[in-house]
Write a structure and sequence with these properties.
The complex is a heterodimer of chains A (about 650) and B (about 290). Chain A is of the alpha+beta class and about 650 residues long. Chain A folds into 3 domains: about 1-260, Immunoglobulin-like; about 385-510, no CATH class; about 520-635, Immunoglobulin-like, CATH 2.60.40. In chain A, about 25% of the residues lie in helices and about 30% in strands. Chain A is built from 12 helices and 33 strands. In chain A, helix 7 (about 410-420) crosses helix 8 (about 440-460) and helix 8 packs across helix 9. Chain B is mainly alpha-helical. Chain B contains 9 helices and no strands. Mean pLDDT of chain B is about 90; it is low at about 285-294. Classes of the chains: A alpha+beta (about 650), B mainly alpha (about 290). The interface between A and B is large, with 60 and 82 residues.
């Protein structure tokens, strides 16, 4: 009873400290929350302030310490893990590095926790890395306890913007405050016993966080136009031509903000979502395409995955000098990328916008661990990016839509995977910083997306939608793992298709996601053999003598198929006979070789494996088909045009 | 009026030298063959009996070529570089013959005279072509490239001044291009008429001649360039979009592209001949540059 009373007062006090003013019903458990009050010092490029935060021990265990990320220390020197992995340096000038200093660290009883704070390097043991701290609590946190912390800190922004930093009077402020790690215990992802999941900041890595509540007050010179991941609650004028902005954000995994005097602000609305776009003044011609892209993405994911649960959304097209901040996601705030002279037929700005918005779902709502399973956010999100781009901008022109050249997003994504020489270097089970040969991007984005598109080809698009709807219903505002996603896929596919694809889809994911094999099916040959009418007689030596006749028109027609890759997937085979008839066969794709033989009056003219190119993972489409007399017209046309191009170029180039 | 006369003279002289135009066309075809025959063979061998080329029926499909891997690019890019380089040198050689055949006192066109004057003028014509091409590239970077980069790097300026700067400098560039062409053409016409001149001397002559009679010759060059640009635009907006679906259609397309190429060469010859005519009389053969003022 005493414990219950204590819990009651704790909840009341927590809610008094962090008033719930946006969503009547919290979307998440709100295990952590932050009240941050900071000032931007534009001369020193520093952010000074205080942070009051809490973490609720939801685990059934007593936890002796807390762990927090100090991401900004990655930019402290070239000896941080981040820069060691990058093989680079934050710069040698005094204004170049970034860092975060903690001046005071107390609990809610004003006990000094600074002496028990230490830097740890759980990933690589690098003693020079200061991106994670462990703070031993005066009293271990019992199950249900809330740990309150009060921190006075200063963050210096780096000059070389890698997601975060400053350039002249442009600021993109991300990974800027002390942030709780995630305490995982049995039932959360792969955790057995409870432990903090609080990784160092790596070059090839993103983040992992609790859904939190943020009350952030920023004081800065009046000239700045500010965008953030929160809702603007109030704006007051302060002394010395400064202003104080107060933001509130609920149930988001990160809070970032940007400030620059050069932004132009545009507003739009989609259903009940207020959209704000911050864009440099010289890119006004890009505004409509950017807003259209984000409205498209909102509509598509809302329809096919689940509702966008916030009432606002801010996105930023950073200026050229802040280009390093482009293409990043902070749930209700994301950054895109464009230029004032981007031709309308190149859909790169739309692609970046659609992709980064998609992250509101894939790690924003479904808060997977980007450190450990980057495919689960980047790959899944790239899958949806491709679907959205090719849906709204043309199935043949999602990326480039010029009369002379059309490229769908699925093609550019597939080529990223199939043309990579390192496509078999490792599996998707790696932690993000462990991908070898620079394969992080290809493996996490393109390969994973292509795997999911291949699955779409097998189970169908509506089944995939249902998988994601169920994934959303089950895991929104929680921390799903890859296994959780696969479990959902297994459940939904079984529900819709029964055992058509086996007991589950583990055979698929084990080969593709967690294997290094490639998929490559080949038509090896077409053999049309005329059958001869058996005519014979028994001669005096009892041997069969055989006389053939070629007046018959019966053929034994065979197609020989081959599996070159290690991955076995069910494929369709379309066989076309010279009399115009066609036969569609199903091949489970398991054996190395497979023949289909037909006896009839018509010869086989051509054969296609996967005629509709559903198996996007197939690394070579060239060998998927064979025709006895292929039509070379397209090639001839191409070569003739090429000849003319060379001739025109030679004669025009000669002044 | 003078301009029309020059243009008319240019047409008649270009027509008179039709064999020279055909010679250049044949050489361009042979040169293109150096890359197109191996390309055709590589494509046939690489695609074999695959039907994936069906996807090219509607136009370029990068996915189809991506499957060829490095086979194509390894051969194509060095091949293109080689052909373009040889093409540049060869056209300098053939232009030597062409300019010589446009002279007022050239007489009947003969292939041997065409080739021998090409050989005689070769090094000077090559030098002129290289220098003028370099100037065109350099000014292009200066007037278009740098303003464009500045526009891309610009963060936010009310009134879009970098865009206005780009428009102004690009316009200047396109206004300046005909001047450079005039310089090149006068230099080559002067050199053809004066075989003893060095390339640099001819280039100096080209500059002085251009600015001596700038008004008329610039206007004439604008007309000639405009006609050529309109023709090229016509080609660009038709041929790449033409997708014949049968072998006969492809052959017809080939014939038409070659016809268009000949027209393209004829337009160029018209320019060369008109400029040659407008610069006449040139000085006596081997006369010093100072004697050239008219």
């Amino acid at each position: 009873m005493r414990k219950n009373l204590y819990l009651f007062f704790l909840i009341i006090s927590t809610h008094l400290c962090y008033p719930q003013i946006i969503n009547k019903i919290p979307l998440s458990e709100r295990i952590t929350g932050y009240q941050i009050d900071v000032q931007l010092d534009p001369v020193r490029k520093c952010i000074n302030g205080t942070l009051k935060g809490y973490w609720v021990n939801k685990s059934p265990e007593t936890v002796p310490d807390i762990r927090m990320h100090l991401y900004m220390n990655a930019f402290r020197s070239n000896r941080s893990t981040f820069y060691k992995e990058a093989g680079d340096s934050p710069g040698i000038n005094e204004t170049d590095p970034g860092w975060i200093e903690i001046f005071s660290f107390t609990d809610n009883q004003n006990r000094d926790l600074l002496p028990s704070m230490k830097f740890i390097s759980p990933d690589d043991g690098n003693p020079e890395d200061r991106t994670v701290i462990s703070v031993t609590l005066p009293e271990p946190a019992k199950p249900g306890d809330t740990v309150f912390v009060n921190i006075v800190f200063e963050t210096k922004l780096p000059s070389r913007i890698i997601r975060t930093g400053f350039s002249d009077d442009f600021y993109f402020v991300a990974q800027w405050f002390p942030k709780f790690g995630v305490y995982e215990f049995e039932g959360i992802r792969y955790a057995g016993k409870g432990e903090w999941n609080c990784h160092q900041f790596h070059r090839n890595s993103e983040f992992y966080s609790y859904h939190s509540v943020y009350d952030v007050t920023i004081t800065l010179p009046e000239k700045f136009i500010v965008g953030s991941g929160g809702m603007l609650i109030s704006e007051e004028k302060s002394a010395n031509n400064t202003k104080k902005l107060t933001y509130r954000a609920e149930d988001i995994v990160d809070f970032a903000w940007t400030a620059w005097p050069g932004y132009s602000v545009f507003k739009d609305k989609w259903n009940n979502v207020d959209i704000t776009l911050l864009i440099p003044g010289n890119r006004i011609n890009q505004v409509e395409r950017q807003l259209t892209a984000v409205r498209n993405a909102l509509e598509y994911l809302d329809r096919n995955v689940g509702p966008y649960p916030w009432q606002y959304l801010t996105f930023v097209d950073p200026p050229a000098k802040g280009g390093g901040a482009g293409g990043m996601e902070y749930t209700t705030l994301f950054t895109s990328s464009s230029s004032p002279v981007m031709p309308p037929f190149i859909h790169v700005p739309e692609m970046v916008t659609v992709h980064e918005f998609g992250h509101a779902y894939f790690m924003g709502i479904l808060a997977s661990n980007e450190f450990e399973e980057p495919w689960l956010d980047e790959g899944v999100n790239s899958y949806w990016e491709v679907r959205m781009m090719d849906y709204y901008y043309g199935s043949k022109s999602g990326m480039i839509d010029h009369p002379l050249l059309k490229i769908p997003d699925i093609t550019s994504t597939r080529l990223g995977y199939v043309s990579s020489p390192s496509r078999q270097a490792t599996t998707n089970a790696e932690y993000s910083w462990n991908y070898p040969h620079g394969t992080y991007g290809m493996m996490s984005y393109q390969k994973a997306a292509i795997i999911l598109h291949t699955l779409t080809g097998i189970v169908g698009e509506e089944t995939m939608n249902e998988i994601f709807r169920e994934y959303y219903r089950k895991w929104a505002f929680k921390h799903p793992s890859g296994k959780d996603f696969i479990d959902v896929a297994n459940e939904v596919v079984r529900k819709i298709h029964g055992d058509r694809f086996g007991q589950d889809l583990n055979w698929f994911f084990d080969q593709t996601l967690y294997g290094t094999g490639i998929c490559d099916y080949k038509v090896a040959d077409i053999i049309n053999q005329k059958l001869r009418k058996p005519e014979g007689r028994i001669d005096s030596h009892d041997t069969l003598s055989y006389e053939g006749t070629d007046t018959d028109s019966l053929y034994s027609a065979t197609v020989q198929l081959e599996r070159i890759g290690e991955v076995t997937l069910p494929v369709e085979v379309l066989i076309h006979f010279e009399d115009g008839t066609e036969k569609q066969e199903e091949w489970d794709g398991k054996s190395r070789y497979r023949d289909f033989t037909y006896t009839g009056t018509a010869k086989i003219e051509w054969v296609k494996i996967d005629p509709q190119f559903k198996i996007k993972m197939d690394v070579n489409y060239k060998n998927n088909s064979m025709k006895l007399n292929p039509d070379r017209t397209p090639l001839k046309r191409l070569v003739k045009k090429f000849v003319a191009f060379i001739q025109f170029f030679i004669t025009l180039n000669a002044v | 009026m003078k301009i029309i006369n020059f243009l008319n003279t240019g047409i008649s002289r270009a027509v008179k030298s039709w064999k020279g135009i055909l010679i250049i066309w044949i050489f361009s075809l042979i040169l293109a063959g150096f890359i197109s025959f191996p390309l055709s063979s590589v494509l046939k061998r690489s695609f074999g009996n695959s039907m994936v080329t069906e996807r090219l029926m509607d136009g370029l499909d990068v996915e189809v070529f991506a499957d060829l891997g490095s086979n194509l690019s390894a051969f194509l890019f060095p091949g293109l570089f080689f052909v373009f380089l040889i093409g540049f040198i060869l056209t300098s050689f053939l232009n030597g013959g062409l300019f010589d055949s446009f002279r007022e006192d050239a007489g009947e066109f003969s292939v041997s005279a065409f080739l021998s004057s090409g050989a005689r003028n070769f090094w000077s014509f090559l030098l002129i072509a290289i220098i003028i091409r370099m100037i065109i590239y350099f000014t292009g970077v200066l007037f278009v490239g740098i303003p464009l980069i500045l526009l891309l790097m610009e963060n936010s300026t009310p009134g879009n001044s970098p865009l206005i700067i780009l428009i102004i400098t690009s316009s200047l560039y396109f206004v300046m291009l005909p001047v450079l062409l005039l310089v090149a053409d006068y230099a080559r016409a002067g050199k053809a008429a004066n075989p003893g001149w060095s390339g640099f001397k001819a280039l100096g002559f080209g500059f002085s001649k251009t600015f001596d009679r700038f008004g008329n010759s610039y206007l004439m060059m604008i007309i000639l360039t405009l006609a050529h640009v309109l023709f090229i635009l016509l080609v660009i907006n038709t041929i790449p979009f033409w997708k014949p679906q049968t072998g006969k259609g492809v052959f017809l397309m080939f014939l038409i592209t070659q016809l268009l190429l000949i027209i393209n060469l004829a337009l160029k010859a018209w320019r060369y001949a008109s400029v040659t005519a407008s610069g006449e009389p040139y000085c006596r053969k081997n006369a010093p540059v100072s004697d050239l003022a008219d």
